[in-house]
Amino acid sequence: MAARARTSQDRVSDTITAFAGSLPFVYLHAAWFTIWILLSKGAFGDAAVFDPYPFGLLTTIVSLEAIFLSTFVMISQNRQAAREDIRAEVDFETNLRSEVWSVHIGKALGLDAEAVERRGALLRTAHHHGSFRGTDDGSCPPAGTTGAPAP
After folding, report:
1. What is the pTM of this model?
2. Rounded-to-integer distance, Cα 42 and Cα 44, Å
3. Residue of 10, 150, 144, 131 whose CA lies nearest to 80
4. Which of 32, 34, 46, 50 has the fewest Cβ atoms nearer than 10 Å?
Protein backbone atom coordinates (compact mmCIF):
# COMPACT_ATOMS: atom_id res chain seq x y z
CA MET A 1 0.00 0.00 0.00
CA ALA A 2 2.79 2.45 0.89
CA ALA A 3 4.62 1.69 -2.36
CA ARG A 4 1.42 2.28 -4.33
CA ALA A 5 0.76 5.58 -2.52
CA ARG A 6 4.36 6.64 -3.15
CA THR A 7 3.97 5.84 -6.84
CA SER A 8 0.85 7.99 -7.03
CA GLN A 9 2.60 10.80 -5.19
CA ASP A 10 5.58 10.48 -7.51
CA ARG A 11 3.32 10.72 -10.56
CA VAL A 12 1.63 13.83 -9.15
CA SER A 13 5.01 15.37 -8.35
CA ASP A 14 6.33 14.63 -11.84
CA THR A 15 3.18 16.07 -13.47
CA ILE A 16 3.40 19.28 -11.45
CA THR A 17 7.13 19.60 -12.11
CA ALA A 18 6.66 19.01 -15.84
CA PHE A 19 3.91 21.64 -16.03
CA ALA A 20 5.89 24.15 -13.94
CA GLY A 21 8.79 23.81 -16.37
CA SER A 22 6.70 24.57 -19.45
CA LEU A 23 5.83 27.67 -21.45
CA PRO A 24 2.07 27.28 -20.81
CA PHE A 25 2.92 27.70 -17.10
CA VAL A 26 4.74 30.95 -17.88
CA TYR A 27 1.88 32.21 -20.09
CA LEU A 28 -0.71 31.31 -17.46
CA HIS A 29 1.20 33.20 -14.78
CA ALA A 30 1.79 36.21 -17.01
CA ALA A 31 -1.96 36.41 -17.70
CA TRP A 32 -2.82 35.81 -14.03
CA PHE A 33 -0.45 38.54 -12.80
CA THR A 34 -1.65 40.98 -15.46
CA ILE A 35 -5.32 40.47 -14.59
CA TRP A 36 -4.58 40.59 -10.84
CA ILE A 37 -2.65 43.87 -11.13
CA LEU A 38 -5.22 45.45 -13.46
CA LEU A 39 -8.05 44.51 -11.07
CA SER A 40 -6.09 45.71 -8.05
CA LYS A 41 -5.14 49.00 -9.71
CA GLY A 42 -8.82 49.77 -10.41
CA ALA A 43 -8.75 49.32 -14.21
CA PHE A 44 -12.23 47.71 -14.02
CA GLY A 45 -13.65 50.06 -11.39
CA ASP A 46 -12.92 50.74 -7.76
CA ALA A 47 -15.30 47.96 -6.67
CA ALA A 48 -12.98 45.35 -8.23
CA VAL A 49 -9.94 46.46 -6.18
CA PHE A 50 -9.18 43.74 -3.65
CA ASP A 51 -5.36 43.81 -3.24
CA PRO A 52 -4.10 47.39 -3.48
CA TYR A 53 -0.50 48.25 -4.23
CA PRO A 54 2.01 46.84 -3.09
CA PHE A 55 -0.07 43.69 -3.75
CA GLY A 56 0.62 41.94 -0.42
CA LEU A 57 -1.82 39.08 -1.10
CA LEU A 58 -0.30 38.41 -4.53
CA THR A 59 3.18 38.44 -3.02
CA THR A 60 2.14 35.94 -0.35
CA ILE A 61 0.48 33.61 -2.87
CA VAL A 62 3.46 33.71 -5.23
CA SER A 63 5.86 33.04 -2.34
CA LEU A 64 3.85 30.02 -1.21
CA GLU A 65 3.67 28.75 -4.78
CA ALA A 66 7.47 29.08 -5.10
CA ILE A 67 7.96 27.07 -1.89
CA PHE A 68 5.73 24.25 -3.09
CA LEU A 69 7.12 24.21 -6.64
CA SER A 70 10.70 24.08 -5.39
CA THR A 71 9.74 21.14 -3.18
CA PHE A 72 8.21 19.28 -6.14
CA VAL A 73 11.31 19.98 -8.24
CA MET A 74 13.58 18.65 -5.48
CA ILE A 75 11.44 15.51 -5.12
CA SER A 76 11.70 14.87 -8.87
CA GLN A 77 15.45 15.52 -8.83
CA ASN A 78 15.95 13.12 -5.93
CA ARG A 79 14.03 10.41 -7.75
CA GLN A 80 16.06 11.06 -10.91
CA ALA A 81 19.29 10.81 -8.91
CA ALA A 82 18.13 7.49 -7.43
CA ARG A 83 17.39 6.18 -10.95
CA GLU A 84 20.83 7.32 -12.14
CA ASP A 85 22.48 5.55 -9.19
CA ILE A 86 20.69 2.32 -10.14
CA ARG A 87 21.75 2.73 -13.79
CA ALA A 88 25.36 3.32 -12.74
CA GLU A 89 25.29 0.19 -10.58
CA VAL A 90 23.83 -1.88 -13.44
CA ASP A 91 26.44 -0.46 -15.83
CA PHE A 92 29.22 -1.37 -13.40
CA GLU A 93 27.90 -4.92 -13.00
CA THR A 94 27.56 -5.28 -16.78
CA ASN A 95 31.10 -4.02 -17.35
CA LEU A 96 32.42 -6.36 -14.67
CA ARG A 97 30.65 -9.35 -16.24
CA SER A 98 32.00 -8.36 -19.66
CA GLU A 99 35.50 -8.21 -18.29
CA VAL A 100 35.17 -11.63 -16.64
CA TRP A 101 33.81 -13.13 -19.87
CA SER A 102 36.56 -11.46 -21.89
CA VAL A 103 39.22 -12.99 -19.64
CA HIS A 104 37.61 -16.45 -19.92
CA ILE A 105 37.30 -16.19 -23.70
CA GLY A 106 40.86 -14.90 -23.95
CA LYS A 107 42.13 -17.86 -21.93
CA ALA A 108 40.10 -20.27 -24.07
CA LEU A 109 41.69 -18.74 -27.18
CA GLY A 110 45.15 -18.94 -25.65
CA LEU A 111 45.70 -15.18 -25.39
CA ASP A 112 48.16 -13.74 -22.89
CA ALA A 113 46.11 -11.37 -20.68
CA GLU A 114 49.17 -9.30 -19.75
CA ALA A 115 50.09 -8.78 -23.41
CA VAL A 116 46.52 -7.69 -24.16
CA GLU A 117 46.63 -5.22 -21.25
CA ARG A 118 49.99 -3.81 -22.43
CA ARG A 119 48.58 -3.39 -25.94
CA GLY A 120 45.47 -1.69 -24.57
CA ALA A 121 47.61 0.69 -22.50
CA LEU A 122 49.66 1.59 -25.58
CA LEU A 123 46.52 2.25 -27.62
CA ARG A 124 44.96 4.35 -24.83
CA THR A 125 48.16 6.38 -24.49
CA ALA A 126 48.40 6.91 -28.25
CA HIS A 127 44.72 7.88 -28.44
CA HIS A 128 45.08 10.25 -25.48
CA HIS A 129 48.03 12.01 -27.13
CA GLY A 130 46.28 12.14 -30.50
CA SER A 131 48.88 10.04 -32.27
CA PHE A 132 46.68 6.98 -32.89
CA ARG A 133 44.94 7.09 -36.25
CA GLY A 134 44.28 3.44 -37.01
CA THR A 135 45.20 1.77 -40.28
CA ASP A 136 43.77 2.21 -43.76
CA ASP A 137 41.79 -1.02 -43.54
CA GLY A 138 40.27 -0.09 -40.13
CA SER A 139 42.24 -2.66 -38.15
CA CYS A 140 44.51 -1.90 -35.23
CA PRO A 141 48.14 -1.19 -36.05
CA PRO A 142 50.88 -3.52 -34.82
CA ALA A 143 51.89 -3.11 -31.17
CA GLY A 144 54.28 -0.21 -30.59
CA THR A 145 53.15 1.76 -33.66
CA THR A 146 50.65 4.59 -34.10
CA GLY A 147 49.09 3.46 -37.35
CA ALA A 148 50.24 6.60 -39.12
CA PRO A 149 51.67 6.08 -42.60
CA ALA A 150 55.43 6.08 -42.78
CA PRO A 151 56.89 9.39 -44.06
Report:
1. 0.56
2. 5
3. 10
4. 46
Distance, in Å, from the CA atom of 146 to the CA atom of 141, rounded to the nearest integer, reads: 7
Taking 70 as the pLDDT cut, the residues of the chain under it are 1-6, 131-151
Distance of CA 77 to the CA centre of its chain: 9
**Single-letter amino acid, residue 91:** D
Question: What does the alpha-carbon distance between residue 66 and residue 75 come to, in Å, rounded to a whole number?
Answer: 14
Q: What is the pLDDT of residue 105?
A: 92
Q: How far apart are CA 137 and CA 82, in angstroms?
A: 44
Phi first, then psi, for residue 148 (nearest 5°) are -75, 145
| C-alpha R_g of the chain | 31
H or E segment to which residue 151 belongs: none
